[in-house]
Amino acid sequence: MDSQLEHNKNLVRRYYEINMHDSTGIEEVVSDGFVDHHFPPSLPPGPEGVKQFFGNVLGAVFSDMSIVHDEIIAEGNMVITKFALHARHTAEFAGIPAKNNAVVCPAFSMFRIENGKLVEAWEIADLLGLFEQMKA
Questions:
Q1: What is the span of the domain harbouring residue 44?
Q2: Which pLDDT score, from 0 to 100, does residue 1 have?
């Protein structure tokens, strides 16, 4: 197995591992200009935007968050992961009151890597399924 491809996969694993906690060390994983195209456009690029998304967006609605990767594929400077966010819905979101219920949101993310850091990301998530679970 190509060691660079394994390194790239581990970089993506580390990105999620850091963000499921307190985002300490995210600067080592994402570039200063990192852009995640599924983040709200009001968030800044780079580590600060990542911290705000996982802390103030997801973290404001969910607790006990974890990521379970089903598959991670690397090719060149790109990594794709099929994963699920597991969490507890603990605050009102989009008019849906918190019921403290467990939710699972399957998703796919694709990352582009340059100079050993994540520089760009895209994500497709089952938000309809997530909202249905939050209302249940």
A1: 3-135
A2: 56
